[in-house]
Write a structure and sequence with these properties.
Helices cover 46% and strands 16% of the residues. It has seven helices and six strands. The chain has a six-stranded mixed beta sheet, sandwiched between helices.
Length: 232
């Protein structure tokens, strides 16, 4: 199950315009995502076996409404321009397609075997259910607005129109390559690394020893790139 914690702006944007149907965006099961566990029920009446929490916001980037989504655990961020209002199916399709593509590419870049169709199928099987809830703290909104400004800056630097998944993925990669801090790991978080390790644990059978080796490989590669003249 994937839970999208929606800002008011995103909730109003994603809500279908059909009349007479139950609202898509519901009340949050608890005040904080970390407290959701006991309150979540899957289709079989049991607690869901796997839950991923994302934050979702709608912001103006270059004067256009864009969805910004951030994985709560890793701070991995993606942005989606050109979505249609009131079309959750379109958003979910774009979200799953982009995320799987980016993770397959990241895994292959790290020398890991990764097949798009196989991973997409496993992803859809594990996360067949999506839930949208209205829940967003003021500090979270500030973080998402900052992320939107970073995306806008990166679009300008990359000189891209950011209209295709491929162009958006380039911008996503630039954002997720930057170190961020969390309360648990201040100034030590690389979103691209955290998300890739989480993804391979979930979908690639990555063991603890394999994860340790992968992290060393990724950190060594980043140090080499940073040390190259003209690179940061």
């Amino acid at each position: 199950m994937i839970i999208f914690n929606c800002s008011q702006a995103f909730a109003e944007f994603i809500e279908p315009r059909k009349t007479g149907s139950a609202p898509l965006v519901g009340e949050a099961p608890s005040p904080r995502p970390s407290e959701d566990g006991p309150h979540l029920i899957d289709v079989d009446g049991q607690p869901p076996r796997e839950v991923k929490q994302w934050q979702a916001h709608l912001a103006l980037i270059q004067g256009k409404p864009c969805a910004i989504v951030v994985d709560i655990d890793s701070s991995y961020a993606m942005f989606f321009p050109g979505l249609k209002a009131g079309d959750p199916e379109g958003f979910l399709d774009a979200f799953a397609t982009r995320l799987v593509n980016e993770m397959v590419f990241a895994a292959q870049t790290a020398g890991m075997m990764a097949d798009f169709d196989a991973m997409l199928g496993t992803f859809q099987e594990k996360h067949a259910r999506f839930q949208f809830v209205l829940r967003m703290e003021h500090s979270t909104l500030e973080h998402l607005d900052d992320t939107a400004r970073n995306f806008e800056n990166e679009i300008v630097l990359a000189d891209l129109a950011s209209e295709t998944h491929e162009e958006c993925a380039v911008i996503d990669a630039r954002i997720n390559h930057a170190i961020r801090g969390l309360k648990t790991e201040p100034d030590q978080l690389l979103p691209e690394e955290e998300m890739l390790c989480s993804w391979l644990r979930d979908f690639g059978g990555l063991t603890a020893d394999g994860e340790s080796a992968l992290r060393k490989q990724l950190r060594a590669k980043k140090l080499r790139v940073t040390a190259e003249p003209g690179r940061a």
